[in-house]
Amino acid sequence: MAARIIVVDSGGTSRQVRRFFVIDAGGTPRLVSRAFVIDAGGTARLIYSGEMITLGNTTVIANTFAPQNPSVSYSLNSNGTITGFATDLGTYSIGNWVAPSPPVASYEVFATLNSGTASGTFGSWLPLSSNRTWSKSSSSLGLVSASIGLQIRDASGTVVDTATITLSCNKDS
User: What is the CATH number of domain 53-172?
Assistant: First the structure.
């Protein structure tokens, strides 16, 4: 278990560090997932361990030929992984939304349907202690899509990442 890192702000209030950033040589802020100190005996000691939340804008697309109808889905899973499904590909890994994973119990997701039609829960904060899936299917010829905005927040209510997910179904004759 890592020790807590406490900082004192300019007003004299002590605050626990929740996210820890460094600036790399190119000037880009990088989120630190773990920090260590070397003790007097030369042993590395973990002093900070934080989760890194990464969604990333993603498109999930299915391509089928009539009479087969295309369907797609995007899932944030309670084990910290992201999976996609497309009729022509089956289920596949997109990556991890939290690292190291788990713990996921202290995070929630909020989905907004930006355009098109899709199924799933929209407009409510949902705990990520359960799998959350959004999907789209189509029976018509051509390309149809839905755009979904996702936000993830931590237990303090701070939104820690956002992404746009596009679900597309393409049916050719």
Answer: 2.60.40
69 SS3 class? coil
Strands 159-172 and 58-65: parallel
For the entire predicted model, the pTM comes to 0.73
Q: Return the domain boundaries, the chain.
A: 6-49, 53-172
CA 117: distance to chain centroid? 21
* Bridge partners of residue 61, in order along the sequence: 168
Do the bridges between strand 90-96 and strand 81-86 make them parallel or antiparallel, or are there none, so unpaired?
A: antiparallel
Nearest to 147 by CA among 111, 123, 171, 121: 111
- Tokens at 152, concatenated: 């993830």
Digit-by-digit pLDDT tens for the chain (173 residues) are: 344 566 777 888 877 666 666 777 887 777 666 677 788 888 887 766 666 778 889 999 999 999 999 999 999 999 999 999 999 999 999 998 887 665 667 899 999 999 999 999 999 999 999 999 999 999 999 999 999 999 999 877 888 889 999 999 999 99
Cis before 100 (ω within 30): yes
Prior bond to 29 cis, omega within 30? Answer: no
**Helix, strand, coil share of the chain (percent; to 5):** 0, 55, 45
